[in-house]
Amino acid sequence: MPGRVKTRLVPPLTHEDAARVARASLEDTARFIVPAIRAHWTLFLDGDADRPLRALAEEAGVTISPQRGADLGERLAAAFRDLRGQGARRVIAIGSDAPTLDPERILEAIEALSVCDVALGPTEDGGYYLIGMSGDHESILDEIPWGSGAAAATTLERARARSLEVRLLAPWYDLDDAASLLRAYDATRLGWALRPVLEEIRARLGTSS
Hints:
The chain has helices at residues 15-33, 51-60, 72-85, 103-112, 151-161, 178-187, 194-201, and strands spanning 41-45, 62-66, 91-94, 118-122, 128-133, 166-168. By secondary structure, the protein is α/β, with parallel strands linked by helices. The protein has one domain: Spore Coat Polysaccharide Biosynthesis Protein SpsA, Chain A (Alpha-Beta Complex), CATH 3.90.550.10. Helix 1 runs antiparallel to helix 7 (194-201) and helix 6 (178-187) crosses helix 7.
């Protein structure tokens, strides 16, 4: 919904354009990342899915569940608990705003969690694109400065303070500023939902490398 998603992109984008970027990123994640990883996928959604999103989830074999919690930490913790309650021994969460992520990063996290407690994939701006756990370690998500450049470092510090073994993945980027949008445009191909959106707004972002 405009005004509720990807607000760090405003300006240079409008809230409407930022919402289009978020929607297209989610669609491309479902189409290109989900099929590359043989696992049970759940989309934890804030709000109700419209008909096209329900159809896309069904096509990709993705279950849709509601988000619960006041902030990102509470919502992540609730998702991890829900999936463990369904029998999952290793649970990984990725954002829907890193659609160009190489699925190999996710496979690396899955393999790491067979011997580690936590897997963390930091973003270049200090957040993270992936977090995984192989047990009940949600307390490391309490009082994280979400949306800041210290989110990943704080989470890593919390995990190590609890003597948890952490596998740190290589950094990647999510779509939070003009530079990352231009980078994503260069990485997308015809057939991606994100590409025509970025094509339309690219003039407002500057010149791509």
